[in-house]
Amino acid sequence: MIKTCKCGNVMSDATVPNKIIYWTYFEDEWEKQILEILEKIHFPFIRTVWHCDKCDRLYNWEPKDNKLYTYFLENQDSTENECSCSNEFNKGTLLKVYSYNDFESPSIQSQIRNGEEVVFPRKVEFCPRCKRVFVFKDKKIKAFYVEEVTDLKIE
Ligand SMILES: [Zn+2]
Ligand SMILES: [Zn+2]
């Protein structure tokens, strides 16, 4: 598949592994995915989030409502964030999200198979009220806000 970002960058999933696609799960889905990795159940659930490395936009093809959510990287100094979620990031009151790319997948899978505690390359949380996504990596928090929501057409 090819997707042209709003910034003009052309993204493609033709090369595997890639750093464009992030396999992404909420907590209940992740628990099932662990069982899938352990080959205990068949859980063919897929949510892919594409990341544009030119402008940092995220595209979430959301399987739960068949919509494409476009996220943009919010200005960290924004005063327009009315939601209290920005203060709640470290309190665990937001929904946990598990997300990793093809390069990170093998080590996560082997940690699961070895019964080790899985160390994720980034901490991701989602605010169900304002739909912001927070990504914590390298001691930096990036906040993403929904820019556009479009219906997906089944072709
Ligand atoms: Zn872009
Ligand atoms: Zn919020």
Q: How would you describe this protein?
A:
- The protein has 155 residues and is an alpha+beta fold.
- The chain has one domain (16-151).
- The protein is built from three helices and ten strands.
- The longest helix has 11 residues, at 27-37.
- The two termini are 13 Å apart.
- The model has no long low-confidence stretch (mean pLDDT 90).
- Bound molecules: zinc ion (2 copies).
- Residues 83, 85, 127, 129-130, 132 line the site of one zinc ion.
What are the main properties of this structure?
eight-stranded antiparallel beta barrel; 155 residues; alpha+beta; 3 helices; 10 strands; 15% helix; single chain; binds zinc ion; 35% strand
SSE topology sketch:
Blueprint: E1 2-4, E2 10-12, E3 21-26, H1 27-37, E4 48-51, E5 58-62, E6 67-73, H2 85-88, E7 95-100, H3 105-113, E8 123-126, E9 133-137, E10 140-151
Antiparallel strand pairs: 1-2, 3-4, 3-7, 4-5, 5-6, 6-10, 7-8, 8-9, 9-10
Residues 5, 7, 9, 52, 54-55, 57 line the site of one zinc ion.
Order of helices and strands: EEEHEEEHEHEEE
Main beta-sheet strand count, sense and barrel state: 8 strands, antiparallel, barrel
Uncertain spans, ≥5 residues at pLDDT below 50? none
Shape: globular
Counting structural domains, the number is 1
User: Approximately how much helix is present in the residues?
Assistant: 10-25%
> Given the helix and strand composition, which structural class is it?
alpha+beta
Write a brief caption for the model:
This protein is an alpha+beta fold. The chain is 15% helix and 35% strand.
